[in-house]
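Supplementary notes for students who missed Thursday's class. We covered one full example, reproduced here. Read the sequence, then the structure, then the short commentary at the end.
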Amino acid sequence: MDPAEAIDGIYRAEFGRALATVARLVGDIGLAEDAVQEAFADALRTWPDRGVPSSPGAWITTAARNRALDRLRRESARGGKEQDAVLLTAPSEEVVVSPVADDQLRMIFTCCHPALSPESQVALTLRLVCGLRTAEIARAFLQPEHTVAQRLTRAKAKIRSAGIPLRVPPAPLLPERMPAVLACVYLVFTEGYFATSGPTAIREELCDEAIRLGKLLCALLPDDPEARALLALMLLNDSRRSQRRGADGELVPIEDQDRTGWNHAQIQAGLRCLVSAAADGTGPYLAQARIAAAHATAPTWDRTDWRAVVSGYDELSQYTRSPAVLVNRAIAVGFLRGFDEGLAALDDIADHPRLATSHLVAATRADLLRRAGRHAESVEHYRIARDRAANEQVRRFLSRRLAEVENALRRNPINP
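Structure (token representation):
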């Protein structure tokens, strides 16, 4: 593989891990972020000639650590940096007594400090822990990129000005940090499950990382039912991963997937988590896990329990009025009560400002119109959706659907 292409994949997989490790070593998030960025710049300069190292993640982390220490040495040499000088002479691997043993999970709890707004906590974690770029975070939030960029800048400034420590809160304070932490982990998963931009719609490394963090959270706080519900949700949805792309690498919608190829061991693990979570509480992740379970246990697409799916979305809408949730509910309503009712439900949310630049509404409307046999109208909205889609694989899928509907129109122009 071309080193430049390899670096992009390594950036996505290793940025968060490298930053979390370097931040723990030098005690400064901003310094660590700059150092990791410089390490990747070094990789871009040197790997095309020398080749990709056998352990690129370790190479990046080491290079970033050296960059950070070089900067601290320069700063301390200018005087007035006694603390940095002390840091340079201290052992680099300080023993940390903490119930959180994972660097990235520790970083998530740090970013979710209550001095930061919930929106900033999530955005900062997605940037610093998971390595999502500002544009990707903006699409995950359905917000303009400049808004998210300003939020990230303010959050980092707040950490510096307020002296927010890079440490794990004591165990009694962990539960109050959990809602933001769970939100972060879930957004990591959703970005991996359906990437907002880039060459591929599925980012397996993010799905794996989110599930790994979900398992760590369940082990950390075994009495938290929402942590188990989130893990159930991720396991159930991820169980379809191998069938979501065909042999040609293109997306395969759930109704056309080979259900015998789903990961049934993962489905059973997800269902066990779901039962356990449902016995101890309620919450938004439990509602979503119930929806995922209805899909995962349906023997065929036609035998999907749409009543359970709509009920799950109704329950979920009690916790959040997210426009994405309401769009998905409109789809489920279409399958339960008829596509015209689905379109009516979509009309109720279509003008939401957070959906203004997204392809989501146009793609959903096009699909419901196609299923209702209103092909001429469907073509119009498929074109809009295709032109708005930021992910290349999603754009190809929409183009394929558009071609199918145009062919149907040519075969039967009298009944569009």
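Commentary. The two ends are 47 Å apart (CA to CA). Confidence is low (pLDDT under 50) at residues 88-98. If anything here is unclear, bring it to office hours.
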